[in-house]
DNA sequence: TATTGTTATACTCTATAACTATA
DNA sequence: TATAGTTATAGAGTATAACAATA
């Protein structure tokens, strides 16, 4: 019966695992853990965001977030200011050093990734993007519990 | 330049994150951590394998593997016997209880997943599978460092 | 000499829940 | 009452490296 998708999930997991192996090298190379790398990558090329939003974009719960951000702050990679419209909330963004790290590391991840896709042409990308976008749409349609205070 | 793939990677990561959120619920529901769940899922429906092979199929390094397996053994979910052909190596497999857990939990993951793909028809699956298989092929083509003794 | 798995260390992440301050 | 983030706790995962037994 409808279990054909198992193969797809396995493939998806294997692809992701492959990328994680690759990006994990970059993370460790610049002294970041997986979670820290995740935060830097999420904050990169954005004006910044709150803990809450960061928690939604990553799989890091709020209790953990405090510690992860603390360590990134100690490394001088992120800075936080109290949000002006909601005084309970922080506004988080990369520092200059954080941006430098992002600008230095991310292109290397990009270059590594680009090598992976060296043989892809526009049609291949069209297909990959639309297929994945479709998959993401059906996943997002499933109601998911709030990750931040289960 | 060739950075079009970034969108694909982001999509891939978001899909995987969605699945991890879903499967994470099942894992916690049966008292397993992500790593433990990973092992059970990897051992399920196989005759068993060595630590080394498990390490290759998951992203768990050998130093960690000892501890993870230890806890699963304490829970009575896996059992190990010395390999007969290589006496340094263990042969690991699910116990009856481990198989029961796998048989009980995995179908629920399957059912949850099936709900995600309710609207997919054969053509959709064809497309998804071949797209992902192609992606996996290019990822696997990249030389990756040995995860087990970096 | 190389490989399989163990042990040890130090740190980080995780789930959970009770808590403070603000909304 | 609800929400944003903090703190505390106990357990688990992580990288790393030195080590034993076997190949």
UniProtKB/TrEMBL annotation, chains A, B:
Keywords: DNA-binding, Transcription, Transcription regulation. GO terms for molecular function: DNA binding; DNA-binding transcription factor activity. SMART domains: HTH_MARR (SM00347). Transmembrane segments: none annotated. SUPFAM superfamilies: Winged helix' DNA-binding domain (SSF46785). Residues 2-137 form the HTH marR-type domain. This is MarR family transcriptional regulator.
């Amino acid at each position: 019966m409808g279990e054909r998708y198992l193969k797809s999930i396995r493939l998806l997991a294997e692809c992701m695992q492959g990328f994680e192996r690759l990006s994990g090298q970059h993370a460790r190379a610049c002294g970041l853990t997986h979670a820290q790398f995740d935060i830097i990558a999420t904050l990169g090329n954005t004006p910044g965001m709150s803990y809450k939003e960061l928690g939604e974009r990553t799989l890091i719960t709020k209790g953990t977030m405090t510690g992860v951000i603390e360590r990134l702050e100690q490394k001088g990679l992120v800075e936080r200011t109290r949000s002006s419209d909601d005084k309970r909330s922080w506004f988080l963004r990369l520092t200059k050093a954080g941006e430098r790290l992002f600008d230095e590391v991310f292109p290397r991840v990009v270059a590594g990734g680009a090598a992976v896709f060296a043989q892809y042409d526009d049609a291949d990308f069209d297909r990959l993007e639309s297929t994945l976008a479709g998959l993401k749409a059906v996943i997002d349609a499933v109601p998911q519990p709030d990750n931040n205070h289960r």
